[in-house]
Amino acid sequence: MSIQTTETADRVHVNNTRVELFDDIGPIDWEDLPKVAVLTQRLIREFAKDKALFKRLLLAVEHDPYLWAKCEEDVVEDKIVLWDDVEKGLRIRLRMSTDHQQQLAHNHRFSFTNLVLRGTYLHRNYVARNGFDENTLPDDVQPVLLHQDRAGECFTIHHNALHSTPFTELGTISLVLRGNPVKDRAPVMFKETRGREEALRLHQERADGDLSEVEPEAAGVGTMFWRVGEDRESAERRAERQMTKEKYHYWCKRLEELGIV
Asked: CB atoms < 10 A from the CB of 137, how many?
């Protein structure tokens, strides 16, 4: 008697889109950060250098329902997911800035490596007195290191690292190679004000004391929210964030004009 199995959506994606660069990569141990930094920085640089592969995966995204559902338009950036192998702990996505970003102290649900393709990040690392959670006050979070990440530079971050990476140039573009999530959600704190005074007043009047799982369009210093995975978002919220085909085609054209693909 034969037993039939149904491939999960991520395995259909991986099996239908072979990438030789990843063939010999086993499951990535993101907790061994020095070792994983060497491996993932090599992989992301080789991927970015292979423009034919880069372009092939980029143009395939709109035809892959699994990847397309992960492409987003957020408050200050757009994201296009190019590849996702859950078994290997390896997801590659493009991150494109679309507006000024404030200094947001945060950690992540996953560890990752970032390669800046265009533009600059102003990168701050922090320490938080008594930990970093929804009860943390702005003065408890202090910067300990400030540096710039320019085009061609790479960094690897553990999910517990506390940092901010506001874009200093509109149109800053990076490639992110990230691991699987190890947390359901991760807190974010505004270290700078976002929005006009009236917008801030209205936002504060609506606040009910609980941290939102939606990034606010207006916020004061000390405002916090949660970043969560797509599995915690409602269908309505996913629809709000879903990238449009128009925006996707714009980025495909723009990335080619810039010589990135």
From this structure: 11
